[in-house]
Write a structure and sequence with these properties.
57% of the residues lie in helices and 0% in strands. By secondary structure, the chain is mostly helical. It folds into 2 domains: 5-57; 70-128, no CATH class. Helix 1 packs across helix 3. The radius of gyration is 20 Å and the shape is elongated.
């Protein structure tokens, strides 16, 4: 099953390079066709040689580690499936601002509006957010 990361252009390009290398293409050929740096393709080849396409697929996509672990994300998903009122808000509706407040109160983290939206979307719960800004 493909993850959201598998759909990123950078991951798709990496996997194309890996498949080409696995099929016997030279590093120079992959560099030329995909316009990647030789260092990047050499690194992909080393990972491929050691662990196959799965190892290449599982490479980090960059960015810093999440401030929320799996338990925290599961807790957030459960909270979003409750009403906002159950978590101390005056109405039942969840908003981006309320999710950010909830995360700050419960986990001591402060996320941007955009990152909060991405987080909720990755949990498959974007439909739970109201368009209201309050």
């Amino acid at each position: 099953m493909a993850s959201q990361a598998d759909e990123l252009p950078s991951v798709a390009r990496r996997m194309t390079a890996g498949k080409m290398l696995a099929e016997g293409a030279s590093v120079a050929h992959v560099v030329e066709v995909l316009r990647m740096s030789p260092q990047t393709v050499e690194r992909y080849k080393a990972i491929l040689d050691e662990g196959g396409l799965d190892a290449l697929r599982q490479m980090s996509i960059g960015g810093r580690p999440s401030a929320l672990d799996d338990d925290a994300r599961q807790w957030l998903a459960a909270a979003l499936n409750d009403s906002a009122r159950a978590h101390g808000f005056p109405t039942d509706a969840w908003t981006n601002a309320r999710v950010r407040e909830l995360l700050t109160t419960n986990f001591g983290v402060s996320f941007s509006r955009v990152y909060t939206w991405q987080l909720v979307s990755k949990l498959g719960l974007a439909h739970r957010l109201s368009k209201s800004t309050k």
